[in-house]
């Protein structure tokens, strides 16, 4: 990569932080880097410490807008707004190398990516499965393609929500290169430690807390009771400092004091993917996209979803299980606490 080029990173979600740092680890400190974020928490993380002298962080909340909706007027309005935002903030980028990592839910930003492809080199570094097997919603996809103007993308239903997703044709038609960076592990670890401190590889058990407390199927008291039972069982084998409870960065759960001691405030705002390391033994969650993460440094890490015995036979449980069948064949689904213990002890 030419040292004279600017490197533009679109980091609209917490899960993209890890990939951004991985790509930066392959670049020279003297190359100009611009990281564009849409979440105030991510902005605070990157502003806290400078990666190097040739690094800027820019906050554009609108790039993470999801346009997909049953309302035609939204597609019309966001087409106008997207053209305005692009002209004002992004049309200046030419002959740059542009990186993006997300292919779902941020259709407003993806249209900016589509426009940037005309005069820049684009790279797509993806660690999550594309939705190629899921049928498009024909009317909403028509609105997305021809009213909003995001070509070669589709709208699918994820649970009860319309979700936009780019297709392989989007990658091909916009001459986007798929990227698999040769990560400089030493530099990556140095970067992540500089940003987040030396907390990232102290735990052996990672429990990703569910963020569904605003959903009708979610019973917080029952959920906390189940998590407490699991943590108490794990303490037979692991010390307190080896067990980490990871709240959702944007939707924290009100935890009792007996569980709060397993939460590290230094790590609460981080994506769970950044907490996956070679010493990790078990990752426990419900519907977390972390289960789809292909960057597991420890392939023997046990992945357990609690969806079957926490949410039982709800519509959401059926959807979550179908999602796991699509993304990962090695997620284990115990039906009860006794099943959980048998899976854990068997491994």
Main features:
347 residues, alpha/beta, Rossmann fold, five-stranded parallel β-sheet, 35% helix, 17% strand
- Physical arrangement of strands within the biggest beta sheet: 3-2-1-4-5-8
Helix/strand order, N-terminal first: EHEHEHEHEHEEHEHEHEHEEHHEH
Shape: globular
**CATH topology description of the largest domain:** Rossmann fold
Structural class: alpha/beta
Helix content: 25-40%
Unreliable sequence segments: none
The Rg value, from CA coordinates, equals 21 Å
What is the number of E strands?
13
CATH class of the largest domain: Alpha Beta
TL;DR of this structure?
The protein is of the alpha/beta class and 347 residues long. Helix content is 35%, strand content 17%.
Overall description:
It is a single chain. This protein has 347 residues and is α/β, with parallel strands linked by helices. It folds into two domains: 6-194, Rossmann fold, CATH 3.40.50; 198-346, 3-Layer(aba) Sandwich (Rossmann fold), CATH 3.40.50. Helix content is 35%, strand content 17%. The chain has helices at residues 15-24, 40-48, 72-90, 107-116, 138-148, 168-173, 185-196, 220-234, 257-260, 307-310, 315-327, 337-346; strands at 6-11, 32-37, 55-59, 97-100, 121-124, 153-158, 161-166, 176-178, 205-208, 243-246, 282-285, 302-305, 331-332. Strands 3-2-1-4-5-8 form a six-stranded parallel beta sheet, with helices on both faces. A five-stranded parallel beta sheet has the order 10-9-11-12-13, with helices on one face. It has a two-stranded antiparallel ribbon with strand order 6-7. Strand 6 and strand 7 (161-166) form a beta hairpin. Helix 3 (72-90) packs across helix 4 (107-116). The longest helix has 19 residues, at 72-90. The radius of gyration is 21 Å and the shape is globular. The N and C termini lie far apart (44 Å).
